[in-house]
Design a protein that fits this description.
about 80 residues, mainly beta, about 0% helix
Length: about 80
């Protein structure tokens, strides 16, 4: 099973960002949750090529105002 190691930064600078491991492949628009706070992925970049089933990614995020937009549930990354 694939593991995605995601480093992320938050654009407003009020959150230090962090590292998260997940088995779900992240996509732009997904919601990352860390420490009880939610962040929407705006940009996603592969840091280095995958090594076996390990993927190394970097995400630029913004604070998520809520987990849904336009009545549609955004996909959480846990």
């Amino acid at each position: 099973m694939a593991t995605y190691k995601i480093s992320f930064v938050v654009i407003n600078g009020e959150h230090p960002g962090g590292l998260i491991n997940t088995e779900k492949e992240p996509h732009i628009g997904d919601i990352l949750t860390m420490g009880g706070e939610s962040f929407e992925i705006l940009e996603l970049v592969e840091l280095i090529p995958p090594r076996g089933e390990m993927y190394y990614l970097h995400a630029t995020c913004k604070p998520a105002e809520n987990a849904s937009a336009g009545g549609e549930q955004k996909r959480p990354v846990e």
